[in-house]
Automatic annotation (TrEMBL):
The chain crosses the membrane at residues 111-133, 153-172, 184-204, 224-244. Residues 1-86 are annotated as: Disordered. It comes from Pampusana beccarii. One of its GO terms (cellular component) is plasma membrane. The lineage of its organism: Eukaryota, Metazoa, Chordata, Craniata, Vertebrata. The gene is Vangl1. Residues 19-35 have a biased composition (Basic residues). Belongs to the Vang family. This is VANG1 protein. It is a multi-pass membrane protein. The keyword Transferase does not apply. Keywords: Cell membrane, Membrane, Transmembrane, Transmembrane helix. Residues 36-45 have a biased composition (Basic and acidic residues). The keyword Thylakoid does not apply.
Length: 525
């Protein structure tokens, strides 16, 4: 048995409360108390986790208030509240704890892989130098003189090692973008190939040169040069496998968000499922609009409102309680189905009307505020340097004039949880610093942007789980389907192969473009 855990987070700001706000507060308090009175047994077995309140839209930060808020701040703002509730079962908590343990294992695996790669890379770069120096140290007097040829080979080895070092740094020593569930197959194969290659060179060097103490020093140096040349070719092979192979588009993937159905299409090359999932997530944070669960509660609240108006009476006794209520409610819902589309139409029309109205008020308020900033800038040029304002102070000075309209618009469009007071002030000061127009300032709030536009604390998706019927290290195939899950929603990815296109050519003789103009002497009357 799993117990539900309700998580509530409330975003509020400065306001002067009227009688209407106090009444709304009492209604909200009674509404939060009502579930406990309805089902006392459930409330005794449930555990409520209260999350710390996030930073409010019009925050009460004391330092910011003392620095930039004027005396009329409380009179130009209104309260914004929003509530988000999530139910988490005990199985979900166990899964989250398991994911945390797995993440610790992933960190160990990642550092272990980096350590092995670093040790192997150090061995690769020191091996040619050791091949050249060991004969000079062990049997220097018995070596045959080499002269200019060996000096030229020394220069060649030095520059080739430098090129190999730069190429290795550019290809391998990059900050990882994600922790993948499985190893990268091609990179592991390259590491194994390099290890076997260097081991075979050391084995041949120990048997044919160290044991016999070969006196042909020029041949030993050429042996080291051949090793460096082979390492350069392995580096070229790594570039082809890790970078060039995936550039040619071979598949088209459709990514659909499970909650609201928003979808995008991307073209991918030859990739494994886990690397394709990584590419999809990178594009998701850039292309998909931010996930807003508040927009998904309209249909649920509408259905709950319809069912709340139904009263079911049980006349057959307590034995038929469940089935009788279910049949009655289904029948009543079917009778009201014909009128529900009219209610949906008028609700959406009324919502669009309110959004357009508050948007117009917001645009006017922001334009007036920016006009005031321009007038201040013209006046500041004649003032003393000590009386000038920096962009932060200017933003704090004009923000109260637009705060009320901005709050109401964000509350109507249900975006208030993504924009705190501090983030709005930072964006406003940024626009003032770069001499941006009011339309540029409003672009972030009028149209929901991608996830990367908002702070990481506002994201609903940080840790993902890859679900696939095929092995995640296998390559993409036509018809492959995998799912990327997070706590609140999932991304369903469907892979389709780009069809083979047969393009033919048809030649048109330029001399064939000749026409005759036919004139008719008779005309219709």
């Amino acid at each position: 048995m799993s117990a539900a855990m309700d998580t509530e987070s409330t975003y509020s700001g400065y306001s002067h409360y009227s009688g209407h706000s106090k009444k709304a507060h009492r209604q909200g308090r009674d509404r939060h108390k009502s579930p406990r009175s309805k089902d006392g047994s459930r409330s005794e077995k449930s555990v409520t986790i209260q999350t710390p309140p996030a930073e409010p839209l019009l925050g009460n930060d004391a330092s910011r208030a003392e620095e930039g808020q004027d005396d009329n701040w409380g009179e130009t703002t209104t309260a914004i509240t929003g509530t988000s509730e999530h139910s988490i079962s005990q199985e979900d908590i166990a899964r989250i704890s398991k994911d945390l343990e797995d993440s610790v294992g992933l960190d160990c695996k990642r550092y272990l892989g980096l350590t092995v790669a670093a040790v192997l890379g150090l061995l690769v770069f020191l091996t040619p130098i050791a091949f050249i120096l060991l004969p000079q140290i062990l049997w220097r007097d018995d070596l045959e003189p080499c002269g200019t040829v060996c000096e030229g080979l020394f220069i060649s080895v030095a520059f080739k090692l430098l090129i190999l070092l730069i190429g290795t740094w550019a290809l391998f020593f990059r900050q990882p973008k994600a922790d993948l569930p499985r190893v990268f197959v091609f990179r592991a194969l390259l590491l194994v190939l390099i290890f076997l290659f260097v081991f075979s060179y050391w084995l041949f060097y120990g048997v044919r040169i160290l044991d016999s103490k070969d006196t042909n020093y020029q041949g030993i140096v050429q042996y080291a040069v051949s090793l460096v040349d082979a390492l350069l070719f392995i580096h070229y092979l790594a570039i082809v496998l890790l970078e060039l192979r995936q550039l040619q588009p071979m598949f088209t993937v459709k990514v659909v968000r499970s909650t609201d159905g928003e979808s995008r299409y991307y073209s991918l090359g030859h990739l494994s499922i886990q690397r394709a999932a990584l590419v999809v997530l990178e594009n998701y944070y850039r292309d998909f609009t931010v996930y807003n669960p508040a927009l998904l509660t309209a249909s649920k609240s509408r259905a709950a409102k319809h069912m709340a108006g139904l009263k079911v009476y049980n006349v057959d006794g307590p034995g038929n309680n469940v089935s009788g209520q279910s049949r009655a409610m289904i029948a009543a819902a079917a009778r009201r189905r014909d009128s529900s589309h009219n209610e949906l139409y008028y609700e959406e029309a009324d919502h669009e009307r309110r959004v357009r109205k508050r948007r117009a008020r917001l645009v006017v308020a922001v334009e007036e505020a920016f006009t005031h900033i321009k007038r201040l800038q013209a006046e500041e040029q004649q003032k003393a340097p000590g009386e000038t304002m920096d962009p932060r102070e200017a933003a704090q000075a004009i923000f109260p004039s637009m705060a009320r309209a901005l709050q109401k618009y964000l509350r109507t469009t249900r975006q208030q949880q993504y924009h705190s007071m501090e983030s709005i002030l930072q964006h406003l000061s940024f626009c003032i610093t770069n001499n941006m127009t009011p339309k540029a300032f409003l672009e972030r709030y009028l149209n929901p942007g991608p996830t990367l536009q908002y702070d990481k604390d506002r994201w609903f998706s940080k840790q993902w789980t890859l679900v696939s019927e095929e092995a995640v290290t296998s390559g993409l195939q036509d018809g492959t389907v995998f799912v990327l899950k997070c706590l609140d929603f999932s991304l369903v990815v469907n892979v389709k192969k780009i069809p083979f296109i047969k393009l033919s050519e048809e030649f048109i003789d330029p001399k064939s473009h000749k026409f005759v103009l036919r004139l008719q002497s008779e005309t219709s009357v």
